[in-house]
Specification:
183 residues; 4 helices; globular; disordered N terminus
């Protein structure tokens, strides 16, 4: 059963620590091989994130049958932690209440009533990505994995997240990360 419960109170302020993580070719964990994650720090726990390039073979109308727009949107696998947790990324449009502001134009939220408002047209948006599950790390764990070379970090890139086809996103951002390393 999918649900949306607040993991902690979400501040409605921009998070300057948000990054994109691109799995390196040496990534041994099959759950994260060839993934791109949007990662941020939230609360007192370690970093949290969602995989943004793993669409499932199911559309949102299976969860939200009352909304025509749901037939056009894939459900994404956001990560192996809390697989029943629904979260969503919104680009553009109205600011989403009870969300974490990732950039001036991207919000991360878990609130089902707000998702309902987006799907039924009460709130406008440019792009919406809904996922189940997430990723999280203990304090210091992600930094250690980056030091080991499991991940490459890139700045938030809304065009990559929402405009690149998910099947091409990892390869494109992996190339971009390698170019950064060569400089």
């Amino acid at each position: 059963m999918l649900q949306a419960e607040p993991l902690e109170q979400m501040p409605h302020t921009q998070d300057s620590s948000a990054i994109l993580l691109v799995a390196s070719q040496q990534m041994a964990d099959p759950r994260f091989r060839k993934t791109v994650l949007l990662v941020t720090r939230h609360g007192k726990s370690g970093p949290i994130g969602v995989i943004v390039n793993r669409p499932e073979s199911v559309t949102l109308d299976k969860m939200f049958p009352d909304y025509a727009v749901a037939r056009e949107l894939s459900l994404f696998n956001g990560g192996p932690v809390y697989p029943g947790q629904v979260s969503y990324l919104v680009r553009g449009g109205d600011a989403v209440e009870r969300s974490l502001v990732i950039s001036s134009n991207i919000y991360l939220a878990y609130d089902l009533p707000n998702l309902d408002d987006l799907l039924n047209g009460k709130r406008r948006y440019k792009d919406l990505r809904v996922m189940h599950g997430m990723a999280s790390w203990a304090p210091g764990q992600l930094e250690y994995e980056i030091k080991l070379g499991d991940w490459d970090a890139l700045p938030i890139d809304e065009t990559a997240i929402f405009d690149l086809p998910p099947a091409e996103m990892w390869q494109e951002l992996h190339r971009k990360a390698n170019r950064y390393q060569e400089i």
